[in-house]
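Revision sheet: structure tokens.
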Amino acid sequence: MTDQPRPSAAPELGLRERKQRELRRAIEAIAVDLVSQHTYDTVSVDMICEAADVSQRTFFNYFGTKENAVMGDEPPRVSDEQIAAIVDDPRDDTLDVLFTFLANLNNLTQHDRTMREKRREIVFRNPELMKSLFARMDALEEVLSDAVSRRLQRMRGLAESTAALREEARMNVNVVGSLLKFSTDVWLQESDPASTIVALSEARRLAARVLAPSAST
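Predicted:
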């Protein structure tokens, strides 16, 4: 079996970027706490700005909409570097490559993990946000499917993609999504990204047993 790369560390930020990130995180935390205490509809941008002691201009420069402040990057945005890592990873096993990608996404601070759990509860209590979350998840699936399609094209030395290749790519992404759903408890609670890979690998082995032809057939 090919060794699996360790989850990558986030690059260090400059002073300005750190301050911007800290302010963004502070505003997000306030927005999430307000919606947790009230409801999404009753919390206004004015309320968030007043509690965070920022101007509306600053708020909209950072987020654009109230929804973006409340939902944040959930599911997380995928960077060009992460896409390239999927496409160019030298391992033969595409599912293992996607497991590593998810482990890196799950490399969260305790603050981020707490925010994720609060946002999950907010979505359940405010169904109007569910449509937005599903749209974000669909967009993420499209991005990952495209990356896997490019990966398969590279691995097989094809000059261009095909419909069958794109279908195979979508199947890879959907399989990983199902394994992730099965491993939700680990995804939400574990602080060690390597545990995500272990949980997904165990779920994969179980799925393989379930999908294996029965001896009686």
